[in-house]
Design goal:
The longest helix has 6 residues. This protein has a single domain, classed as Immunoglobulin-like (Sandwich). It is built from three helices and eleven strands, in the order ββββαββααβββββ. Strand 5 and strand 6 form a beta hairpin. 12% of the residues lie in helices and 40% in strands. The strands form four sheets. The chain has a four-stranded mixed β-sheet. It has a three-stranded antiparallel β-sheet with strand order 3-5-6. Strands 1-2 form a two-stranded antiparallel ribbon. By secondary structure, it is mainly β. The protein is elongated and about 75 Å long. This is S-layer homology domain-containing protein.
Length: 127
């Protein structure tokens, strides 16, 4: 039951049915850009990837929401195939937050993997 005041300030009561499901949201769809080519430094993998996760209820998670709702999205990151000049230091990534330390790498491949098995990849070229 819900109690409310109508336009004439009279208290009213309304009843309605609610369906409750005993299941946590999980990533149903994961999308990202295939390539990122720029001179602009980014901090997080989801920024380079233009990452978007959608759960089975249709709720979208983008940018900082992906990390803020990590208990639900459970997206993990890898950084592979870093191209680094001789003597340079390769880029690294925090697999949980997606925070990237670029170091001297000029290109690399980012992967985002959800706990539900969805995987997307973005090839990054950084000049």
């Amino acid at each position: 039951n819900v109690m409310y005041k109508d336009a004439k300030d009279a208290i009213k009561t309304a009843s309605f049915e609610v369906e409750v499901k005993d299941e946590l949201p999980t990533v149903d769809k994961l999308t990202a850009d295939e390539n990122y080519d720029s001179t602009t430094n980014k901090t997080y993998a989801y920024e380079y990837m233009n990452l978007k996760a959608v759960d089975q209820y249709g709720v979208e998670y983008t940018t900082t929401e992906i990390n803020a709702y990590d208990a639900l999205t459970q997206i993990r990151y890898t950084l592979e195939d870093a191209t680094t000049p001789t003597g340079g230091t390769a880029a690294t990534i925090n697999s949980v937050t997606g925070q990237i330390t670029l170091n001297d790498s000029t290109s690399f491949t980012l992967k985002a993997i959800s706990a539900s098995g969805k995987v997307v990849t973005t090839f990054v070229t950084h000049q």
